[in-house]
Write a sequence for this structure.
């Protein structure tokens, strides 16, 4: 199953991002903790090479503390500035602001010595549906940016004024092509890719393969499976039967079951699942 998703508006968004970056002191790059390394858009990162970047590892409430710690250790090993946060937590987003001030410390002190009071201006960027707008709204204490539970809600760049801390909300942007299909699959699992372009049955089958490996106990418990010692399609059929997704004639309704399994994953009904703790 080949996954590619780069709709036309993303080309326009990429050009606008490059243009607006000149107005910004730095970048808050928002990522989904469940597939954090898949969230790295190399094309975007290439634009940010001359700006300080704070990596915002969002949705940490959706993975275990152990997995969060491993991810943090990897970012620390790479010498990156990062914060592990729950985007709905005011305390966590305040830590993110402090990290932005930290990467700008030298510039702030230089300006202060000249008697200049600086307003920090950070671009908030990343791939779709990682929670960029949610993070902005939590920092601001009100709904200043549009949010949604599907990819591609934000379509235009928008400045959010917060006193001496301005944020630029930008549309989520995918790489023009996925060199790593494992990463593409992980992004599809967590809803970063528009479901309408996906082979949902094929995706669910791949998810079953992955859950067998990374969360076998939770997967078996959720669907009351007796064993995972069988092929993915056989497991798929068993889940269909357990959930009552059977069509007339006794055939499995794979489409309805696929949507249910993926929805269960996204809404933490299976377990707190992290697909990557290292690149």
């Amino acid at each position: 199953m080949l996954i590619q998703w780069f709709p036309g508006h993303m080309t326009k968004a990429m050009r606008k991002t490059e243009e607006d970056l000149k107005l910004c002191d730095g970048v808050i790059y928002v990522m989904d903790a469940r597939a954090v390394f898949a969230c790295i858009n190399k094309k975007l990162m290439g634009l940010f090479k001359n700006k300080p970047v704070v990596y915002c590892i969002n949705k940490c409430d959706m993975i275990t503390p152990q997995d969060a710690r491993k991810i943090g250790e990897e970012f620390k090993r790479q010498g990156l500035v990062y914060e592990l946060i729950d985007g709905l937590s005011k305390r966590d987003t305040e830590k993110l602001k402090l990290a932005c001030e930290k990467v700008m410390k030298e510039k702030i002190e230089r300006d202060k010595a000249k008697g200049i009071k600086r307003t920090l201006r950070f671009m908030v960027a990343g791939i779709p549906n990682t929670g960029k707008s949610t993070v902005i709204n939590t920092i601001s204490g009100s709904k200043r940016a549009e949010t949604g539970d599907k990819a591609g809600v934000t379509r235009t760049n928008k400045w959010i004024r917060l006193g001496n801390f301005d944020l630029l909300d930008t549309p989520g942007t995918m790489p023009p092509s996925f060199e790593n299909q494992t990463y593409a699959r992980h992004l599809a699992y967590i809803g970063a890719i528009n479901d309408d372009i996906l082979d949902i049955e094929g995706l669910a089958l791949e998810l079953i393969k992955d859950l067998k490996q990374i969360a076998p106990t939770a997967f078996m418990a959720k669907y009351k499976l007796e064993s995972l010692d069988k092929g993915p399609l056989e497991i798929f059929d068993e889940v269909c039967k357990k959930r009552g997704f059977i069509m007339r004639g006794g055939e499995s309704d794979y489409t309805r079951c696929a949507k249910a399994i993926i929805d269960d994953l996204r809404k933490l009904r299976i377990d707190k699942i992290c697909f990557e703790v290292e690149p």
User: Anything to note?
Assistant: The beta strands are 26-32, 53-58, 81-84, 120-125, 158-162, 165-169. The two ends are 22 Å apart (CA to CA). DSSP finds eleven helices and six strands in the chain.
